[in-house]
Specification:
Elements: E1 12-16, E2 20-26, H1 29-34, E3 42-44, H2 48-57, E4 65-69, H3 71-83, E5 88-95, H4 98-109, E6 113-119, E7 126-132, E8 135-141, H5 150-156, H6 158-164, E9 165-171, H7 174-177, H8 179-189, E10 195-199, H9 203-208, H10 210-216, E11 222-226, H11 227-236, H12 244-252, E12 263-268, E13 271-277, E14 280-284, H13 297-311, H14 315-329
Parallel strand pairs: 1-5, 1-9, 2-7, 3-8, 5-6, 9-10, 10-11, 11-12
Antiparallel strand pairs: 2-4, 7-8, 12-13, 13-14
Helix pairs in contact: 3-13, 11-12, 13-14
Length: 345
């Protein structure tokens, strides 16, 4: 159901991240060649030839499926799908254009409360998802998503977040966008029994934003990473081991504000999930499924895990929910889900 306004707030998952309008488009093989693109790659649109691709896919020739995109937005959409109530809030930045209206409406259709800043100097971020056979090629224009303003957030939405957040979810990409917002929220919410969950998201995030990660790390209650990101963290920390279990245990025991334990969750594709807490390392087998598209699997796992946290489930049930969500998303194109399917509580 289309929702023109956001529902009344309740205790929520509040996610901060870059949000994009995904344009999922089936294209012919020569479309990639003509535009100088290699299959199964991601290109940041930084010149006119890349930007023209968006005009091409929107010229009426192609059937486009629009969907909200960006890691944090994907995760809260999955959490919302599982929770089936107005329990998720997305905080980010969009342009002041028609594509922002489409993007916000799509998020609201899924039930997510939207607290997006409207940026006049930059267009809404977007991603052309070019499908050809089994290949999935991405062309991304970050646009307004990287122009989040700290002062505007403090004036407009900070009190809303403080009053309503039970779980704060931070995309690693957002550490580059507005570390002041992350730092402020982390410091305030740490004393309010609010879970802070951070997803590292990419190796380059670990390598180029390492100082920002260390600044926020003492506040992190849960850290989500894949095995490549975890190994990049180990390298930056000068940890000699390449064993994922040892890395997870080491990261879980790094200094932390307050006495609560930190939980580290490391995804490994089809291999078992590694979870470290205190002196214990656990392995959780993934849920087998017929794979259509693995993109979005990590976001889906995070979304399912967040849903479990908000419900107050124990660690085992949160992980179980995350693995279930990932198994359903990989059977779809993109981070989309069968809306008539419910999580089996």
């Amino acid at each position: 159901m289309m929702m023109g306004t956001d529902p009344e707030p309740q205790k929520s998952i509040v996610a901060f991240g870059n949000v994009l309008l995904d344009m999922i488009v089936p294209v012919e093989g020569d479309f990639l060649d003509k535009n100088g693109l290699q299959p199964d790659t991601t290109t940041l649109a930084e010149n006119e030839s890349h930007l023209r691709i968006f005009d091409q896919v929107q010229d009426g020739t192609y059937a486009i499926q629009y969907s909200p995109g960006g890691c944090a937005a994907n995760s809260v959409r999955v959490a919302q799908w599982i929770l089936r109530s107005s329990a998720t809030v997305f905080v980010g930045a969009v342009g002041d254009d028609d594509e922002s209206k489409k993007l916000v409406d799509l998020l609201r259709q899924d039930g997510t409360i939207v607290k997006c800043q409207h940026v006049t100097k930059s267009p809404t971020g977007r991603c052309a998802v070019l499908i050809n056979g089994t290949s999935r090629t991405l062309v991304t224009q970050l646009g307004a998503s990287v122009h989040f303003n700290f002062e505007k957030f403090m004036n407009d939405d900070f009190s809303y977040v403080v009053e309503n957040a039970r779980v704060i979810y931070i995309s690693g990409y957002f550490l580059r966008v507005c570390i002041r917002t992350v730092r402020t929220v982390a410091e305030i919410m740490a004393s309010k029994s609010t879970h802070l969950v951070v997803n590292l998201n990419a190796v380059w995030v670990v390598e180029t934003l390492f100082d920002q990660i260390l600044e926020i790390f003492p506040y992190m209650d849960f850290v989500i990473a894949n095995q490549l990101e975890a190994k990049a963290m180990a390298n930056m920390l000068n940890l000699k081991s390449t064993d994922v279990a040892e890395i997870a245990k080491f990261i879980s025991q790094m200094p932390k504000k307050f006495a609560t334990s930190r939980v580290v969750l490391i995804t490994r594709g089809e291999d078992s999930l590694v979870v470290a807490k205190d002196d214990q390392v656990l392995h959780f087998p993934t849920v087998k499924a017929n794979i259509v598209d693995t993109n979005g699997a990590g976001d889906a796992f995070a979304g399912g895990f967040l849903a479990g946290l908000l419900k107050g489930d124990d660690l085992y049930e949160c992980v179980k929910c995350g693995l279930w969500a990932a198994s359903k998303i990989i059977q779809q194109i993109g981070c989309n889900f069968p809306k008539d399917l419910s999580y089996p509580d």
